Amino acid sequence: MSTFEDEVKLAVEALKAGKTILYPTDTIWGIGCDPTHSKAINKIFKIKKRKENKSLIVLVDSFERLKEYVDEVPAIAADLVKTATKPLTIVYSGARKVAGNLLSKDKTIAIRVTKDPFCIAMIEAFGKAVVSTSANISGEASPMLFSQISQAIRQSVDHTVGLYQNDIRQPKASTMIKLKENGEFEVIRP
């Protein structure tokens, strides 16, 4: 059985090689890749049978790294991230340093500062954000357990992380909000 460190190393090797990974996040199991690798992002859309006009979330390990991917981080975002008691994904304007096919039509990007120890270690070792989308075919229920992930998904990704496969993670996807120009925000997913 491999160690936590081994699993981080293997995941990072796959990410650096432009591969897709199946991994545990701070919410549910996710499919991920390098957010600058457009071919890997396209592969995720194909795996999920998801329309490419729907954007994907990226995870970062810290508020500091979040600033690398957004032109300007509004002050309210810092407050929301610091005070959130549950996983919170925020949609920002002014995305940068990612492949164009990762963004929504309005050029926004959805980013979550993860608090999960595996995700933090993986992102730190990789040196950049990691794409994260639920490990399911679009429209189907998101799997709470590794055992609920379809064989089609498991066989389609390039690498599967061997940690927490019998654990129930956070029982739902993150809350998602979109920041508005006037400093307010709207809840997209409660």
Protein model, in words:
- With 190 residues, the chain is α/β, with parallel strands linked by helices.
- 28% of the residues lie in helices and 21% in strands.
- It has a single domain, classed as DHBP synthase (Alpha-Beta Complex).
- The chain has six helices and nine strands.
- It has a nine-stranded mixed beta sheet, sandwiched between helices.
- The N and C termini lie far apart (37 Å).
- The relative contact order is 0.25.
Judged by helices, strands and strand pairing, the structural class is alpha/beta
CATH topology: DHBP synthase
Number of helical segments?
6
What is the string of helix and strand elements?
A: HEEHEHHEEHEHEEE
Radius of gyration, Cα only, in angstroms? 15 Å
| CATH 2nd-level architecture | Alpha-Beta Complex
Strand content: 15-25%
Number of strands: 9
| Overall morphology | globular
Spatial strand sequence of the major β-sheet: 7-1-2-6-3-5-4-8-9
**Mean pLDDT value:** 92
CATH hierarchy class name: Alpha Beta
Brief summary:
The chain has a single domain (4-189), classed as Alpha-Beta Complex (DHBP synthase).
Write the layout of secondary structure elements.
Layout: H1 4-16, E1 21-24, E2 29-32, H2 38-48, E3 57-60, H3 63-66, H4 75-83, E4 88-92, E5 109-113, H5 117-126, E6 130-134, H6 151-156, E7 159-160, E8 175-179, E9 185-189
Helix pairs in contact: 1-5
